[in-house]
Amino acid sequence: MAKSVFEMFLGLSFVLMLSMSLSPGATDEDRKVYIAYLGSLPERDYSPSSHHFSMLQAVIKQSSVANYLIRSYKRSFNGFAAKLTNEEANKLASMKEVVSIFPNKVYHLQTTRSWDFLGLKDSVKRNPTVESDVIIGVIDSGIWPESESFSDKGFGPAPKKWKGSCSGGKNFTCNNKLIGARFYNSEEPREESARDGDGHGTHTASTAAGNNVEDASFFGLAQGTARGGVPSARIAAYKVCKQNGCASADILAAFDDAIADGVDLITISVGSTTRSDFYQDSIAIGAFHAAEKGILTVQSAGNEGRLGKQGVTSVVPWILTVAASSIDRRFFSKVVLGNGKTLNGLSINSFDLKKTKFPLVYGKEIANLGCNEEITARVCETGCLNSTLVKEKIVLCDQFRGNNEARDAGAAGSILKTEIDDVSFVLPLAASALSTDNYESVKSYLNSTKRPVAEILRSETIEDSAAPVVAPFSSRGPNFMEPDIMKPDLSAPGVDILAAFSPIGSPSGNPADKRQVKYSILSGTSMSCPHAAAVAAYVKTFHPEWSPSAIQSALMTTAFPMDQSTNPDGELAYGSGHVNPVKATDPGLVYEVVKGDYIKFLCSIGYDSEKLRRISGDNSTCSKTSENILPRDLNYPSLTAQILPDKSFTVGFHRTVTNVGIASSTYKAKVSSNSKLEVKVDPEVLSFKALKEKKSFNVTVTGDALSLFSMVSASLEWSDGTHSVKSPIVIHSYKSFRLEGSTL
Ligand SMILES: *[C@@H]1O[C@H](CO)[C@@H](O)[C@H](O)[C@H]1NC(C)=O
Ligand SMILES: *[C@@H]1O[C@H](CO)[C@@H](O)[C@H](O)[C@H]1NC(C)=O
Ligand SMILES: *[C@@H]1O[C@H](CO)[C@@H](O)[C@H](O)[C@H]1NC(C)=O
Ligand SMILES: *[C@@H]1O[C@H](CO)[C@@H](O)[C@H](O)[C@H]1NC(C)=O
Ligand SMILES: *[C@@H]1O[C@H](CO)[C@@H](O)[C@H](O)[C@H]1NC(C)=O
């Protein structure tokens, strides 16, 4: 599993797919795990399991189908996972009760200071009693229940609404802080516990809701009080990720359980690296049913990086999608050469070389037999460094990922070349990653003397005044599936975050790195996701009755604007901006979306009435009039439209805001736009006389032709003098990937 963005840079980013054939029997070899999604649960007189069973019996020509049914989803929505042949899956797909069928797919897992940086100080106003009734569901790699971050000192019994259980397996005990745990095994190898062998799930859970733990650090680095955003909240852990990834059948099962267990919010730092339409995306399906039950799902945007790459894969409007940005603390590690020259590199280096200088060697000069010096040894490819020759030396590797081979071959340290200049990672040996210029100067020093030596110092931290800057790895928009819905929604801290860890997990991701730590430093949108989830929970403690969309809106419209000059990808990188916890509790106005709006949205993207009804569980239809509804008319807190390139354009948006601020208030529209867009708001003034009162307005955006793959933006702000309710306006000409007329 790609536990953090770190492994992406290591090139370890698990191409390993799950072994799909589960049973040794010959006839079972062609079987794979498929998920049959049947939509909402019918209201009454329905036995999901026996229905699933009879559906299977109808397609599988075997006397006993029991072995093939892996799981029934029946607590919060309807469906099942089963081992099927291709042919059986096709037959099932043609049944009228099936909304969609899709193969089990591998998803990937994609601090102390971070909360202060966000302005959510320890001393901030809180509602501890209400907060202790909030339950955060963490769908991840499990949890380390004995971590101090999850101790239940001072916690009363679980909230009354809790209907879950502690089913964490053998030797797994919950408490009044960690109130529930479950694990799932749709694929081999089975793991019989919710215990986190990796560290990722422990890290995300503690970032969201860990206790205040004083004097936490990674070997003295990033020392301080580790705490979650809502330290009084409860945690329920759902383990869906194992060594080889997170199976969609398990993710769906976790949603089915979490919703029925009674969580208030779901945080899921898991994503796919390939696109799928959302009726085949278990996170989108699970989150849809969660939203229906009043539960907001917060998901990481993904670690696919810069524009032009894959793009953000968390695409549906009922999920809050979170990009990752830096905080004002950065780690660097100095390299001191024998000639006295000192170079700053990046890494989180806890190793102390005790002021010893070690001989320097270049990977290419100590190649193992069978390894090409120029191709593999130069970059310290796995198995390519001669351990006799690298021993007690510092080795230069032309690629960052060479650090693993340097460690495994037994080097004293490693100097790595990197093109990433703003993220530091925990590495399995004393190492520092240098920019190309600095790296080249080490190489010329190496060549300039007979006995080149160097030393790598323990990491130091510096303050970074440029923060927050969206991390280079954070997936960019636009939204290639629903191009009129802006994604990511906002940004939160996800670079070099200290949080609780699993003592049996490897802090560097290298299995040979046996350092046992209680706290570790990770980077990724995986880390920013629980930050935003905690802010959503924090808002909920002030407004327990708010819908998921109201909370989502509050976070988005109050986000800090980010600096375009340090964030050249603009809204495509950070969406509405950087999450602002304290402001989010008092947004003034919210853009609410009710189920009926999502239903219209589904019609607008091509659902027919039959599929729609299976999902909605009611008599909804996609009528002729609803065919005229555009996806961008969903009452979303950001305004985005995809337009055709090379043509001037006029696009309209309809929006409705609900007053949640001051009963009698008047909001004026303010538009910030560069010369490229003309924005008209009608009406320009909204006067409210009561709370919960709704007012509608229209926005018309006009502009000259854009070339293909470009974006222009503006912003709309409603202000009553106290509240500022901001929405980005993004017009882009990126192509979308949704196939024209694709069958649902
Ligand atoms: C239970 O788990 C803890 C933490 O890993 C471990 O220290 C202990 O030995 C385990 N006990 C048993 C009986 O396996
Ligand atoms: C490693 O280097 C030593 C010393 O030069 C040499 O004897 C040995 O054969 C090399 N090992 C491999 C695997 O290339
Ligand atoms: C050192 O110099 C030689 C000759 O100029 C060159 O071939 C070699 O690539 C250089 N090595 C490094 C590490 O720059
Ligand atoms: C759907 O419509 C039928 C007939 O109009 C009605 O009897 C039924 O109660 C409706 N079901 C729901 C869930 O609204
Ligand atoms: C917005 O535009 C629609 C037509 O596109 C119109 O029916 C509606 O009255 C307008 N709303 C406002 C508040 O101007």
TrEMBL record:
Chain positions covered by the region annotation Disordered: 185-208
GO biological process: proteolysis
InterPro entries according to UniProt: Peptidase_S8/S53_dom (IPR000209), Peptidase_S8/S53_dom_sf (IPR036852), Peptidase_S8_Ser-AS (IPR023828), Peptidase_S8_subtilisin-rel (IPR015500), Peptidases_S8_3 (IPR034197), S8pro/Inhibitor_I9 (IPR010259), S8pro/Inhibitor_I9_sf (IPR037045), SBT (IPR045051)
Start and end residues of each Peptidase S8/S53 domain: 132-568
CC per GO annotation: extracellular region
GO MF term (any one): serine-type endopeptidase activity
UniProt keyword annotations, A-Z: Glycoprotein, Hydrolase, Protease, Serine protease, Signal
Stretch forming the signal peptide: 1-27
Domain Subtilisin-like protease fibronectin type-III: 633-731
CDD domains: PA_subtilisin_like (cd02120), Peptidases_S8_3 (cd04852)
Highest taxon of the lineage: Eukaryota
Annotated Inhibitor I9 domain residues: 33-110
Active site: D140, H200, S526
Alphabetized Pfam families for the sequence: fn3_6, Inhibitor_I9, Peptidase_S8
Compositional bias (Basic and acidic residues): 185-201
PANTHER family with a match to the protein in the record: PROPROTEIN CONVERTASE SUBTILISIN/KEXIN
Family membership noted in the UniProt record: Belongs to the peptidase S8 family.
Annotated protein name in UniProt: Subtilase family protein, putative isoform 1
Lineage: Eukaryota, Viridiplantae, Streptophyta, Embryophyta, Tracheophyta
